[in-house]
């Protein structure tokens, strides 16, 4: 896990997602897929520094568990929508790594605690990129599952904490997590009503427990929960090793469409975006920073003395969001 920190308001680690948006590839550009058909090419983009950004979803279900589409059809749906990588993460069924045409398939599986009682703690952990079967038995403790996923060479993601009604105190005992879902498509309409976990993530960050932020579809019904929420990963190439390494390093942002890149200079954080309507900055200081202007492509935030973390969100004209990683701020005078 890689977290950007500012000490005495000075940058310790430059965040990976820095880019000037004027050089971002146009979203409606098309390219030819392996089979020769038109394929929407708003997946991989290249920033002005030559950095490559790949689009993917790490939480997907098929007929191997409780999804509506079979694995081949699900993979083709995402491939034709322009995704670069995908993990099929059926409940308790580990998928294999492969290729679906020009799209990378990462191994994946979703594991869950045996209880459905939210007072006792409903916990769902998504494993992705495992090199071997982690051998997790049904009924296993979820920390044991996280450890097994890591030992098998994968990453463990804490899924949909808002949908599970998780409290920060239920999440903080976990170690070895590589991310948390800030947005989960299937947990929203038309099937559910708790897709957004930003409040829980902010409470965790306030207490110093910071996880890389992700978005995912958790596709089940394919009735609007598909090809909606994803991560953009800054990797050298489209291979399992490169994508997984970049995710472990926090070189990503979460989105439903807008680009969102952060830059740090002194005590100022700059968000650069594709054209959006709103840019928000969140911290643990009461009173957020809201910027609204049609077609805006950036906004700045001046770090406040009481801030321990800052993150950003952007919203475009279609109501699609993007979510930055969390910047940790250390000020010994607080």
Number of helices: 5
Q: Helix coverage percent of residues?
A: 10-25%
CATH class of the largest domain: Alpha Beta
Number of domains: 2
Bin the strand percentage. Answer: 25-35%
* Major sheet size, sense and barrel closure: 15 strands, mixed
Question: What structural class results from the helix and strand content?
Answer: mainly beta
Broad shape: globular
- Uncertain runs are 1-42
What is the second-level CATH architecture of the largest domain? Alpha-Beta Barrel
User: N- to C-terminal separation?
Assistant: 25 Å
CATH names the topology of the largest domain as: TIM Barrel
Based on CA atoms alone, the radius of gyration comes out at: 19 Å
- Please state the average pLDDT score: 88
Task: Count every beta strand, where a strand is a DSSP E run of 2 or more residues.
Answer: 22
Order of SSEs:
EEEEEEHEEEEEHEHEHEEHEEEEEEE
The CATH homologous superfamily of the largest domain corresponds to: Metal-dependent hydrolases
């Amino acid at each position: 896990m890689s977290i950007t920190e500012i000490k005495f308001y000075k940058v310790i680690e430059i965040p990976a997602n820095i880019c000037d948006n004027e050089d971002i590839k146009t979203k409606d550009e098309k390219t030819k897929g392996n089979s020769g058909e038109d394929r929407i090419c708003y997946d991989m983009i290249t920033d002005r520094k030559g950095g490559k950004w790949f689009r993917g979803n790490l939480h997907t279900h098929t007929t191997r568990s409780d999804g509506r589409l079979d694995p081949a059809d699900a993979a083709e749906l995402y491939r034709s929508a322009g995704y670069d990588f995908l993990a099929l993460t059926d409940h308790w069924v580990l998928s294999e790594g492969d290729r679906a045409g020009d799209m990378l398939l990462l191994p994946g599986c979703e594991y869950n605690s045996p209880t459905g009682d939210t007072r006792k703690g409903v916990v769902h952990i998504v494993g992705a990129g495992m090199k071997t079967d982690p051998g997790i038995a049904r009924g296993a403790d979820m920390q044991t599952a996280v450890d097994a996923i890591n030992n098998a060479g994968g990453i463990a993601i804490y899924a949909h904490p808002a949908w599970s009604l998780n409290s920060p105190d239920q999440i903080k005992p976990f170690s070895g997590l590589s991310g948390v879902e800030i947005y989960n498509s299937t947990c929203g309409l038309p099937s559910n009503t708790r897709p957004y976990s930003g409040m829980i993530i902010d409470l965790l960050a306030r207490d110093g427990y910071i996880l890389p932020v992700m978005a995912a579809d958790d596709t089940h019904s394919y009735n609007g929960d598909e090809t909606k929420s994803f991560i953009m990963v800054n990797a050298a190439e489209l291979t399992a090793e490169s994508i997984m390494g970049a995710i472990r390093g926090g070189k990503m942002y979460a989105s439903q469409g807008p680009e969102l890149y952060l830059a740090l200079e002194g005590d100022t954080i700059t968000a650069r975006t594709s054209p959006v309507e709103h840019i928000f900055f969140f911290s643990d200081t009461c009173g957020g920073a809201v910027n609204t202007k049609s077609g805006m492509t950036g906004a700045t935030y001046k770090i406040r003395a009481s801030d321990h973390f800052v993150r950003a969100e952007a919203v475009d004209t279609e109501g699609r969001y993007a979510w930055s990683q969390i910047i940790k701020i250390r000020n010994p005078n607080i």
